[in-house]
Amino acid sequence: MAGRSGRAVWFTGPRHIELRETDVRSAGPTEITVRATRSLISAGTEMLVYRGDTTPGDRMPPNSEGTLPFPTKYGYQIVGEVVDAGAESGYAVGDRVFCRHPHQDLFTIDARPAYVVRVPDGVGDAAATFLNLTRVALTGVLDVPVKPGETAVVFGQGIVGMMCARIANLGAAATIVVDRFEKRRELALRYGMAAAVEPQDVASVVAELSHGRGADIVYEASGAPPALQSAIEIAADRGEIVAISLYGSHLVPLRLAPEFHFRRLRITSSQMTDQPRWDWARRTEASFELLRRLPVDDMVSRTVGFDDAADAYDMVDRDPANVLGVVLDYARG
């Protein structure tokens, strides 16, 4: 295939999006060229970039371009169809693939497993865009697994927090979620959570459902600095706290006495690095299986044409009470 051009989402200033023309190289022997069908906006790290809240130490995802804070082409969850495949890529024209690549309608990418994976039958394109965030949630639960009979609490019911709660709830005696937005709490209850509460009510509900023991495990996925303090306060003796959130440039002040020391709590940072017995490929396979078992249709609040990407980001930024997952549809633009 001769070299072509595509259009990509670029962050060019605080809360400013542009669709820029970009050259698309021909696929080399180990590369594939992909025509996008769907991609998912991350309300976590992507919105930090969108708002200009990154820090000098933040890392760029694979296949991103530019520099932080601006301008940058940044993103990591896009699904499409292979339109050209190198002889050594392992893919064929027509294959459906998930790629760790920014939002772009046509692109060429190295087909190594860390960047590209086939979308299995039974997982639609929109659902497949949830792969990366499902893998983030799964990694948090793998970092500190929930044991039968334990009480788990998840702060934040964005996509990562909601998937974390759903995965934890497969084994927990009770899973309690915390979010300030009513629609997210209602959806969590439909997904089978024991309770869904506002932040100011979490301590009393945890005390009731844990019979006074406190939360065995607390997953912090809200991105709100005060949530980590609340996690310390509600954890049981020798309880564990998993910090999934990336806080960007926001300061996270903590009061550690008396709970942190007297209860001998442990805080674990969660990141998608390989773990014993759980390499990248295994977590990818498990995440796709979770997407078969845990449908995400109700987690897609809006589907927006690619031409209107700027409006989609504005929607995620300004209306979190009503917007959870926003998918870009490349057939519309």
From TrEMBL:
InterPro entries: ADH-like_C (IPR013149), GroES-like_sf (IPR011032), NAD(P)-bd_dom_sf (IPR036291)
This protein's UniProt keywords: Metal-binding, Oxidoreductase, Zinc
A Pfam family that the UniProt record links to this protein: ADH_zinc_N
Ranges of residues in domain Alcohol dehydrogenase-like C-terminal: 160-280
UniProt entry tagged with the keyword Oxidoreductase: yes
Keyword Zinc: yes
Family per similarity comment: Belongs to the zinc-containing alcohol dehydrogenase family.
Protein name in the entry: Alcohol dehydrogenase
Organism annotation: Pseudolysinimonas kribbensis
